[in-house]
TrEMBL record:
Family annotation (InterPro entries): Ska2, Ska2_N
Primary location group: nucleus
GO cellular component: outer kinetochore; spindle microtubule
Name recorded for this polypeptide: Protein FAM33A
GO biological process: cell division; chromosome segregation; mitotic cell cycle
Record domain Ska2 N-terminal: where: 7-115
Compartments, record wording: Chromosome, Centromere, Kinetochore; Cytoplasm, Cytoskeleton, Spindle
Keywords: Cell cycle, Cell division, Centromere, Chromosome, Cytoplasm, Cytoskeleton, Kinetochore, Microtubule, Mitosis
Entry's family note: Belongs to the SKA2 family.
């Protein structure tokens, strides 16, 4: 055999390296078994980490979109509140000038309830730090608008 023709010191090194190679092969086999038991078939930890990072980036982008949507929703609510108050005031003036009875208690209660709901909504948004004023408002033209 070839091992018999070598110097005894080289033979000892060779046997040590063969033993180390066998030990490393056993470690690799055990790691493979542990990996297969830990991860589903064809799972690649590097790809999983990459996917987790992409999902985290997508979540951050969705958070920004939600904040923008909430800001736009709040802006719309504020515009509707202003419009509703102006229409209510105009209705009360028209009723008073026409001699018709003013708003009933039920109508006043409904208006107060709506105001309370809007105020509660606004109070809920304050802790979230929704940025206001990001939505562009349409510019008014000089031509009359029909409703």
């Amino acid at each position: 055999m070839a091992a018999d023709r070598r110097h005894p010191a080289v033979n000892d090194v060779y046997l040590t390296l063969v033993g180390a190679s066998n030990t490393l092969a056993d470690v690799q086999r055990r790691l493979d078994l542990e990996f297969r038991a830990s991860y589903p078939d064809h799972a690649n930890p590097a790809k999983l980490v990459g996917r987790v990072k992409r999902v985290q980036e997508e979540v951050a982008a969705l958070k920004d979109l939600c904040r923008d949507l909430l800001a736009q929703k709040q802006e719309l609510i504020d515009m509707m509140r202003t419009s509703l108050a102006a229409q209510r005031s105009a209705t009360q003036r028209l009723l008073a000038s026409s001699g018709l009875p003013l708003m009933t208690d039920d109508e006043e209660a409904a208006y107060a309830s709506l105001k309370q709901v809007i105020d509660e909504w606004t109070d809920q948004l304050k802790p979230m730090g929704v940025r206001m004023g990001r939505m562009k408002t349409p510019t008014r033209s000089s031509s009359p608008q029909s409703f």
